[in-house]
Amino acid sequence: MSNTFLTSSDHWRNRYLLMRHGHSQANQQRLIISSPERGVEAFGLSSIGEQQLVNTVDDWAWPMPTRVVHSDFLRTTQTAARVANAFQLAMTPDKRLRERFFGELEGLTDKHYPDVWALDAQSAEHNHYQVEPVSTVAARMLAVLEDLEQQSKGETILIVSHGDPLQILLTALQGRPLTQHREQPALLPASITRVGVS
Q: Record-annotated residues binding substrate (predicted)?
């Protein structure tokens, strides 16, 4: 699946392909896996996710990436590796691209996500259940882009991250209130969204 997201700004030095990881074992088991203690070493891609990545690479419909930067969680690392291997690119992990931490809800079923999202719609600063605030996620995700913009020019950089962080990032790039991040179209597993120079 492909989305195109063109910001109103013309300041971009690079093009970015924002990719959500493929369908994961956490998705399959309907679990919230957001802590590095669980997510870095376990809960990688499911068999569905593996096939999604085969299809994505075989039917690549985006500009060819020149760099791959990814969250160090297993599911994002495996996703990044499938694309990096296909284009013979090196991979760079960046902890700032990690999943949003869901605090006390870690390891519970994903039926709790809507509870957090309802609170997000009221405040981008809330940390009920010890959840990482939306504003904090936005700041770390934007910092990655800002650093990449300073480091290079004219590149096509694949950024592999997670659903909530990417939707929060896209909301921030659009200049909308962060409380509206769930109003963004849902990013499906293995989907890619283009931002930056056209």
A: 20-27
